[in-house]
Write a structure and sequence with these properties.
single chain; 143 residues; alpha/beta; Rossmann fold; 6-stranded mixed sheet; 7 helices; 52% helix
Amino acid sequence: MKDENILIDTSVWIGYFKNTNPQLNEMVDEVLTYGSIFVPKVVMAELLQGAKTEKEMSIIENYFGAFNIIDQTEDTWFNAGKLAFSMKRKGISIHLVDCYIATLAKENDCMIFSLDEHFNNIKKFLQIKIYIPDLNLGPLRPN
């Protein structure tokens, strides 16, 4: 993942900030060291929503100032909706926000680093790169 554009999903940030899995923290630290990190505004909003105090909110806001903050283009929501529609027609229901995140990753040429396996389903419909760590078996595995 060296020198890659990496979009780190909310699930990974939550695990990282809670510091409950040393292996995950090592993976994130490696990505932060060697990758170019992209953070969608919607991920920041999800993390701020989960903050317990004003201090946590401030820490989150200041922390993400060091990364590439990305937002939608004119067609991002339209394309995310079309993706969700295509998946639903094949019997796969994925939350629209995750379709939006995948669309942002595609638009910004980013690999998605997530703990959510449903990105594997999205990958069947949208050409994206994903990394989902297997925290029991070791390093990140490309999908």
